[in-house]
């Protein structure tokens, strides 16, 4: 049994308030976050102190075990302050669901008396990736190209690693290891979400004991069966989405503040842009689009909450929920274009937070698991019943 006891789970309102109270801190540290390509220790300590690293953690291990709706509401507030920090908190919450697939003995060691231990998850298509069976566990070699938070996480969930025994593949496994046991390659040099530090990790003769291994044998046809339920994977995508929707709300906050400071409308008869009917309409449209994105996001959360515990959402339902995630992002991206128009050229100044929110949203919304064309194709196939999904994991 866990050594952790939870006296009282904070209410939804309490946790949302805690997240909102962190927004000024996260915004103040946003430039540092981006410059260092890492969420600052001050941000992580604040998340820990506020209990916001326990959203998805089961109560057995000292967490809050919240519904998906409540989780995304809270993560959205963090993204509103800093999308990179929100993304790390979201990646952690999603990774916890994956970690819970591990053997009980491993979970005991992972959590001990620390319900705030920070997780990351990483998968790889590296053809050289493999784990060889050795006494007491697996020896792993290979590269994991995208590992958000690899410099600040306590544990890494390494997914879908091919397992070999005497040179023959016998299955695939999910593994747990401290990121400090892997070599980090500083590869995350992109235009947005820089603070996530999504660098590559390389395993070089990494020994993983059996207590940190979840193994799935090959099927009769020789294909590898995923050791992770598809519903769990898609829930993880929703976690990430929530931080991006939060980023759109953060940009809306900044533009509104500028308008309320009576910013002039250059080369017009308006000394205050806020008095312009066209500006008012553009702001209203942006607000409505973000609200629409929020509604789609919450509809997905409610869809997951409706799935009975221990069961999988049907393939048709998974396709529908993923389509709602795409629509949520599309509405937020449309809103961001209107906000950039309202911010004007000054919105692209490096000192203006609007451009950072914009870049973060553009990069994050291109995540492979939120890939619009592929999700559309899966959805169409599901509606028409004309074949299996083209997405391999969902």
Number of beta-strand segments: 8
The CATH superfamily of the largest domain bears the name Butyryl-CoA Dehydrogenase, subunit A, domain 3
SSE class: alpha+beta
Q: What is the count of helical runs?
A: 12
| Secondary-structure element string | HHHHHHHEEEEEEEEHHHHH
Radius of gyration: 22 Å
Beta strand %: 15-25%
Q: What's the structural domain tally?
A: 3
The residue ranges in which pLDDT falls below 50 over 5 or more consecutive positions are none
**CATH-defined topology of the largest domain:** Butyryl-CoA Dehydrogenase, subunit A, domain 3
- How far apart lie the N and C ends? 33 Å
Assembly state of the chains shown: single chain
Main β-sheet: number of strands, strand sense, barrel status? 8 strands, mixed
The CATH top-level class label of the largest domain:
Mainly Alpha
Helix fraction, binned, reads 40-55%
Shape: globular
The residue-averaged pLDDT reads 95
Keywords: Oxidoreductase
InterPro entries: Acyl-CoA_dehydrogenase, Acyl-CoA_DH_C, Acyl-CoA_Oxase/DH_mid-dom_sf, AcylCo_DH-like_C, AcylCoA_DH/ox_N, AcylCoA_DH/ox_N_sf, AcylCoA_DH/oxidase_NM_dom_sf
Domain Acyl-CoA dehydrogenase/oxidase N-terminal: 26-94
Pfam families: Acyl-CoA_dh_2, Acyl-CoA_dh_N
């Amino acid at each position: 049994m866990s050594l952790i006891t939870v006296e009282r789970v904070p209410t939804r309102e309490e946790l949302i308030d805690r997240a909102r109270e962190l927004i000024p801190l996260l915004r103040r540290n946003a430039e540092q976050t981006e410059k260092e390509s890492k969420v600052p220790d001050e941000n992580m300590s604040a998340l820990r102190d506020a209990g916001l690293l326990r959203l998805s953690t089961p109560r057995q291990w000292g967490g809050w075990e919240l519904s998906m709706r409540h989780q995304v509401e809270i993560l959205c507030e963090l993204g509103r302050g800093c999308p990179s920090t929100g993304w790390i908190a979201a990646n952690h919450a999603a990774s916890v669901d994956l970690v819970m697939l591990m053997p009980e003995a491993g979970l005991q060691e992972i959590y001990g008396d620390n319900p705030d231990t920070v997780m990351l998850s990483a998968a790889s298509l590296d053809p050289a990736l493999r784990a060889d069976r050795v006494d007491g566990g697996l020896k792993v070699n290979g590269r994991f190209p995208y590992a958000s938070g690899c410099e600040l996480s306590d544990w890494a969930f390494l997914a879908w690693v091919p397992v070999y025994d005497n040179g023959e593949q016998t299955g695939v496994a999910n593994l747990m290891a401290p990121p400090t046991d892997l070599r980090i390659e500083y590869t995350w040099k992109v235009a947005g979400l820089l603070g996530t530090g999504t660098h590559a990790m390389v395993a070089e003769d990494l020994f993983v004991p059996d207590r940190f291994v979840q193994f799935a044998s090959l099927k009769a046809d020789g294909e590898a069966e995923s050791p992770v339920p598809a519903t769990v994977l898609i829930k993880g995508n929703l976690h990430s989405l929530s931080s991006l929707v939060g980023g759109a709300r953060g940009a809306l906050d900044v533009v509104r503040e500028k308008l309320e400071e009576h910013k002039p409308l250059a080369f017009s008869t308006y000394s205050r842009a806020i008095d312009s009917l066209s500006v008012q309409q553009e702001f209203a449209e942006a607000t409505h689009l973000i609200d629409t994105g929020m509604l789609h996001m919450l509809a997905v959360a409610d869809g997951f909450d409706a799935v009975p515990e221990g069961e999988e959402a049907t393939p048709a339902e998974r396709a529908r929920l993923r389509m709602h995630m795409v629509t949520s992002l599309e509405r937020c991206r449309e809103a961001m274009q209107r906000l950039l128009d309202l911010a004007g050229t000054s919105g692209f100044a490096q000192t203006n937070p609007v451009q950072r929110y914009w870049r973060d949203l553009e990069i994050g919304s291109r995540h492979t698991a939120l890939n619009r064309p592929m999700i559309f194709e899966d959805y169409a196939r599901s509606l028409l019943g004309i074949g299996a999904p083209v997405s391999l994991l969902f």
